[in-house]
């Protein structure tokens, strides 16, 4: 569209061209400004922290054990001549008896428990001499009063034996002529140690005794145990059996052949022998016990940190400590590592303390 005046169209288009060029200039300026801007610096977050703790660390493994006990048979006491061997009293409650107590009475006569290396093998009375007399005198000293251990059955021995019977509510046997006290093997049961644990309860009152009266355990109870870490056990390692009242000590490992295999065969497996102490009622032969054995322990509280706090390893291990707002790298010697915690010993006594804040870097 033209009005016939030369140049008018050019004047109308010029501002548009200027605007267009200006627009390009503004866009270029924006683009150049974005390219030359300084990037925003994000603040560095410090690593999480924890504290140094004082802990007792113990590395343990599970064990499964079977109790083993040796036992000896109790010979039934002979009743007085002309009497039947009937139990007339059973004062012992349970299965554990101490020296100087009555196990049971047969036809009114007591079976008294004493400690000695072997059974009495003959009646002893006034004037008898020998090592068996010394054994009796030592037993009387433990349960009654001190008497000379002379090896001769003298007046002091006779009086002490009579006093033992009297204290238990009985009259000591005596010779029919002079009335001298007699130590009868049928009434004095000599056992190697005390207390004695019977393998089963004694016969009830009114029972007629037979040859199988009872038996008792002798010696130290022990257990054969299996554990997946038997190769790591050291002699003297402690074994705990929960609240059973029983504790144990590892003695040694031994090869035990599997059923049907020769000792040298491939069927053998290692078992741990563990000596046991504790509640006798929990230590019957064949009893199964489950517990834990200590592989390694700090045996007391030590400085410990999570393993995720350790930097480096071996002799170059360290932790980063924050103290009073300052950061320090503290070299440490790493000891026992258990359940995610590591025992740490700083190079200097003041290098690390309980309660210090340390970085978690792992």
What does this molecule look like?
This protein has 362 residues and is α+β, with helices and mostly antiparallel strands. The protein has 3 domains: 49-57 and 300-359, Beta Barrel (conserved putative lor/sdh protein from methanococcus maripaludis s2 fold), CATH 2.40.420.20; 60-67 and 219-297; 76-212, no CATH class. The chain is built from 3 helices and 19 strands. A 7-stranded antiparallel β-sheet has the order 1-19-16-17-18-15-2, with no helix packed on it. Helix 2 crosses helix 3 (155-167). The longest helix is centred in the first third of the chain and has 28 residues, at 8-35. The protein is elongated, with a radius of gyration of 44 Å. The two termini are 80 Å apart.
Q: How many domain units? A: 3
Tell me about the biggest sheet? Answer: 7 strands, antiparallel
Give the percentage of residues in beta strands.
Answer: 25-35%
Distance between the ends: 80 Å
Question: Helical amount among residues, as a percent range?
Answer: 10-25%
Adjacency order of strands in the biggest sheet = 1-19-16-17-18-15-2
Give unreliable regions as ranges. Answer: 1-35, 261-268
Question: Shape from CA axes?
Answer: elongated
Which class of secondary structure composition applies to the elements?
alpha+beta
Mean pLDDT over the full residue set: 83
Topology as a string of helices (H) and strands (E): HEEEEEEEHHEEEEEEEEEEEE
Tally of contiguous helical segments:
3
What Rg, in angstroms, do the CA atoms define?
A: 44 Å
The tally of beta strands, per DSSP, is 19
């Amino acid at each position: 569209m033209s009005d016939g005046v030369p140049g008018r169209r050019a004047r109308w288009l010029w501002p548009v061209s200027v605007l267009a060029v200006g627009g390009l200039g503004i866009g270029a300026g924006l683009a150049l400004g974005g390219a030359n801007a300084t990037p925003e610096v994000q603040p560095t977050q410090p690593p999480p922290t924890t504290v140094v703790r004082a802990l007792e660390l113990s590395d343990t493994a599970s064990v499964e054990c079977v109790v083993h006990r040796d036992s000896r048979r109790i010979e039934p006491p002979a009743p007085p001549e002309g009497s039947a061997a009937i139990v007339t009293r059973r004062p012992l409650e349970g299965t554990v008896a101490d020296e100087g107590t009555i196990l049971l009475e047969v036809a009114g006569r007591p079976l008294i428990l004493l400690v000695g290396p072997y059974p009495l093998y003959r009646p002893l009375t006034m004037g008898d001499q020998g090592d068996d007399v010394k054994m009796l005198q030592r037993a009387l000293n433990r349960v009654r009063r001190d008497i000379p251990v002379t090896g001769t059955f003298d007046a002091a021995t006779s009086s002490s034996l009579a006093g033992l019977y009297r204290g238990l509510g009985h009259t000591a046997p005596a010779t029919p002529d002079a009335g001298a006290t007699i130590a009868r093997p049928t009434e004095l049961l000599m056992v190697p140690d005390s207390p004695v644990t019977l393998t089963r309860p004694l016969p009830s009152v009114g029972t007629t005794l037979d040859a199988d009266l009872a038996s008792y355990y002798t010696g130290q109870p022990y257990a054969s145990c299996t554990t997946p870490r038997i190769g790591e056990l050291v002699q003297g390692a402690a074994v705990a059996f929960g609240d059973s009242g029983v504790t144990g000590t590892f003695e040694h490992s031994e090869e035990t052949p599997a059923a049907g295999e020769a000792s040298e065969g491939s069927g053998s497996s290692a078992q741990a022998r563990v000596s046991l102490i504790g509640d006798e009622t929990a230590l019957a032969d064949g009893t199964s016990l489950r517990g834990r054995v200590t592989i390694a322990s700090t045996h007391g509280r030590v400085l410990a940190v999570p393993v995720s706090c350790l930097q480096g390893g071996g002799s170059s291990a360290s932790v980063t400590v924050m103290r009073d707002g300052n950061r320090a790298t503290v070299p440490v010697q790493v000891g026992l590592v258990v359940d995610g915690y590591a025992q740490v010993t700083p190079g200097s006594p003041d290098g690390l303390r309980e309660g210090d804040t340390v970085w978690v870097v792992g």
